[in-house]
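Design a sequence for this backbone.
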């Protein structure tokens, strides 16, 4: 058995990429420190910011909510009820969020697709083959809407390092310059959109699961039933294989990408398209009618 670097207690937790053994008591504090470092490195947050964290009931978003609270930020949660019936997914995840908010004594907001005239992702999936793309647009829309309405100036999401590296890899394979230009852990506010940050961008999926476990976070273990996108799953598997042979390589890859963008100042620019107001709901959009109003039209047709 290895010994914890901080207290010397025997432990089975070993972070190969950092060559670091930590016991379950010292591990959470170490993760919180890593997140704090990322926040400072990218100038993500100030203590007087009002922060809205998007929570799904999964390990990453609940961990992020807890970490931000522990680090002393003024944070509330936002849960979007997608109305997914498979395995009772939406009901169970909502329950986890409500219970967790009580546990950490933090306020939260709930938006329900049904109440918003969008029915459910189950219904939307019948019309939109790219369900996740429609769902992503809906989530971004309501995160922004609630932040404007309730006076939050920053939105935080729980994307972990594995998500971010997989996205980067996909954007590189496709050589999608517009996405590559925009991929960064901080997106500044502007044109009616709130500032967005990803403080878990250097926390791997395994590390995040271990954090949830060691701090007793009760999260929904099931994945969203629509998350089985074949290409990104195969990218993830292959990237994981690479990481197991070369511990730390994914962190290195992502860090170098961000550093090179920071040096060139490339991340600061948002989209160059002209921003307009949606003719139906008034939300900021690059189109005449925003994506969410379009989805509403299509499902209520
Ligand atoms: Fe929405 Fe797709 Fe994520 Fe499910 S996996 S919550 S459908 S974006
Ligand atoms: Zn609209």
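Sequence:
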């Amino acid at each position: 058995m290895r010994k914890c670097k901080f207290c010397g207690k025997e432990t089975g937790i070993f972070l190969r990429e950092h060559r670091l053994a930590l016991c379950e008591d010292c591990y959470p504090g170490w993760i919180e420190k890593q997140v704090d470092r990322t926040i400072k490195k990218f100038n993500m947050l100030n203590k007087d910011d009002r922060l809205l964290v998007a929570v799904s009931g999964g390990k990453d978003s609940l961990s992020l909510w807890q970490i931000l609270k522990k680090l002393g930020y003024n944070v509330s949660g936002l849960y979007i009820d997608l109305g997914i019936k498979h395995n009772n997914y939406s009901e169970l995840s909502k329950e986890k969020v409500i219970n967790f908010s009580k546990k950490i004594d933090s306020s939260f907001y709930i938006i329900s697709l049904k109440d918003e005239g969008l029915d459910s992702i189950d219904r939307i999936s019948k019309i939109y083959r790219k369900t996740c793309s429609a769902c992503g647009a809906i989530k971004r829309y309501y995160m922004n809407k609630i932040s404007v309405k309730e006076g939050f100036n920053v939105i935080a999401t729980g994307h972990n390092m594995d998500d971010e590296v997989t996205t980067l890899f996909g954007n590189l394979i496709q050589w999608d310059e517009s996405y590559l230009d925009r991929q960064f852990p901080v997106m500044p506010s502007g044109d009616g959109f709130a500032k967005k940050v990803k403080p878990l961008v250097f926390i791997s999926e395994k590390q995040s699961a271990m954090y949830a476990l060691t701090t007793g976070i009760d999260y929904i273990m099931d994945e969203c039933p629509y998350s089985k996108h074949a290409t990104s799953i195969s990218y993830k598997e292959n990237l994981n294989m690479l990481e197991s042979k070369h511990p730390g390589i994914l962190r290195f890859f992502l860090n170098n990408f961000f550093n090179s963008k920071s040096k060139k100042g490339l991340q600061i620019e948002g989209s160059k398209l002209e921003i307009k107001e949606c003719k139906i709901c008034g939300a900021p959009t690059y189109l005449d009618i925003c994506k969410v109003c379009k989805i509403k039209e299509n499902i209520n047709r």
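The pocket of zinc ion (ligand 2) is lined by residues 278, 280-281, 283, 290, 292-293 (CB under 6 Å).
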